[in-house]
Design a protein that fits this description.
single chain; disordered N terminus; 489 residues; 9 helices; mainly alpha; rod-shaped
């Protein structure tokens, strides 16, 4: 006797014994199985019965001799034909044969019933074991499906958490990308301003066209802006590449999550299927189809690799965002400090030019005043010369008239001597006056030349002051603030 609960080898699994050639020849038995439909393996509407039973029941009973039906039974004695019986009456078997035949039928019937009882007991136990085994097998499959569903729910939650984190990181990096693009675009304005300042300062004239501190600071500012633009462009290229990596990792997560959701839906449906569920059918040969492409280890490793890849991309993205933020702050501070230096140089240079202009104006005013005074003096000298010339004419006219005195009247008297002295004195005075006049005129020319130089220098200073103060500083007042450079607006 085998233990209860373990699968037993049913009797019908053993080689079937040959069916007996003789069944109870009863009309009720033959009639009850006459119209039975044979068992079809695809139908569960009929209980299982051996095919040999139906085949044996379909045979018609015969009245063959017992020796033929039961090979093991001793041969019966054939009663000799007695022709001496009156009226043709004779017997074929003896009474012992009749009793022996009945006993044989009884024993055969009892043996058949005993075998049937054993078969029924075996079938009952087998059916019970089959149901228990099927329930246990189905329970194990359901349990495995439940564990599988739990595993998929766990990995789904991990994928959802990582996908949300990746989406947030990608959005943050995209915002950083926009800030970089705006910062890179905002550097174009300061670069153009510095370049235009250099071009405008090339329009200075004369001595003001010098390589001063303003020009040096402007050249330094252009170099710094170019360096900042190159670094921002390199950082922007790196951010774009990192965004592509983030998008690829996100696509892998979304694809894996979609597969997990589909697989979870299918396994949940399979987990809820029962024998009473609707939509269950036969699918012949489906157990021989192996469409699997992974095992639990590779399945879990695939999702774990996707999550690890996403985490690595997120870490690299966060590090890149921090370095980008530092770069934006550094470049903005560097450009702003240089901008302040250039403005300070402009302010200092404008102050110097304004002071020079003021001094030039002062000197120009003094020169003009001196020119006016010299011109006045020249006029006075010229008037004095004219007066002296009149006095000279008078003295010479007197001398000339006195030469016409007759004879002894041509006396060298005191008047004659004084007139001669007067003429000599007047001539000396005139020579001195003409020298003073020439000196005054020369000084006037020098003053006029100095005035011209001062006026030209004043024009140069006005032009330089206009370029530095109005054009250059006017443009630099529109320089973007630090907030705009950092890309916050």
């Amino acid at each position: 006797m085998e233990l209860y609960g373990y699968p037993l080898k049913a009797k019908f699994n053993q080689p079937r014994p040959p069916p007996p050639k003789v069944l109870p020849a009863t009309s009720t038995t033959a009639a009850s199985y006459k119209n039975r439909i044979p068992y079809h393996p695809e139908s569960f509407s009929m209980p299982w019965m051996p095919n040999s039973y139906y085949k044996a029941a379909a045979l018609n009973p015969t009245l063959a001799p017992l020796t033929e039906n039961f090979p093991g039974a001793p041969p019966s004695k054939i009663v000799p034909f007695i022709s001496e019986r009156p009226n043709g009456v004779f017997t074929r078997h003896t009474l012992d044969d009749w009793h022996r035949s009945n006993m044989t039928n009884y024993k055969e019937s009892e043996t058949t019933r005993h075998n049937a009882e054993r078969l029924r007991a075996d079938l009952t136990r087998t059916i019970k074991d089959v149901y228990q085994q099927a329930k246990r097998t189905q329970g194990e499959s359901t349990k495995n499906l439940g564990e599988r569903v739990n595993d998929m729910e766990y990995w789904k939650s991990e994928l959802c958490i990582e996908l949300d984190a990746m989406i947030r990181e990608t959005n943050s990096l995209a915002d950083m990308q926009k800030r970089l693009e705006r910062a890179l675009a905002d550097t174009e304005g300061p670069f153009q301003v510095a370049h235009k300042c250099l071009l405008n300062r090339e329009k200075r004239m004369g001595i003001d066209l010098v390589n001063d501190d303003v020009e040096k600071q402007l050249i330094t500012e252009i170099k710094i802006i170019r360096s900042c633009r190159e670094r921002l462009q390199q950082c922007l290229d790196t951010v774009n590449a990192q965004l592509m990596c983030n998008k690829e990792a996100r696509q892998e997560l979304e694809k894996d999550l979609a597969d997990k959701q589909m697989g979870h839906h299918i396994d949940s449906k399979c987990y809820q299927l029962k024998g009473t569920s609707r939509g269950i059918h036969y699918f012949k040969g489906v157990e021989r189809i192996d469409a699997t492409v992974s095992v639990p280890e590779t399945w879990a490793r695939f999702t774990d690799n996707n999550i690890f890849r996403s985490q690595s991309a997120r870490a690299a993205s966060a590090k890149l965002r921090a370095s980008t933020e530092s770069l934006l702050m550094g470049t903005a501070d560097e450009m702003w400090r240089q901008f302040s230096k250039v403005n300070d140089a402009f302010t200092s240079r404008i102050t110097e030019i304004a002071n020079a202009k003021s001094k030039i104006q002062t000197h120009l005013a003094k020169t003009r005043q001196e020119i006016f005074q010299i011109e006045t003096k020249i006029q006075v000298i010229q008037k004095t010369i004219r007066d002296k010339e009149v006095q000279l004419k008078v003295a010479q006219t007197r001398l000339d008239e006195r030469t016409r005195r007759p004879n002894v009247e041509l006396c060298r008297d005191a008047a004659q001597i004084r007139l001669v002295q007067e003429v000599n004195e007047i001539n000396e005075t005139l020579r001195n006056l003409h020298q003073c006049l020439r000196a005054s005129e020369d000084m006037l020319q020098m003053l006029v030349r100095s005035k011209g130089v001062l006026e030209h220098d004043l024009v140069v200073k006005n032009n330089s002051l206009f370029i530095d103060q109005e054009r250059c500083m006017g443009m630099r007042k529109s320089y973007p603030s630090t907030v705009q450079i950092l890309g916050y607006v």
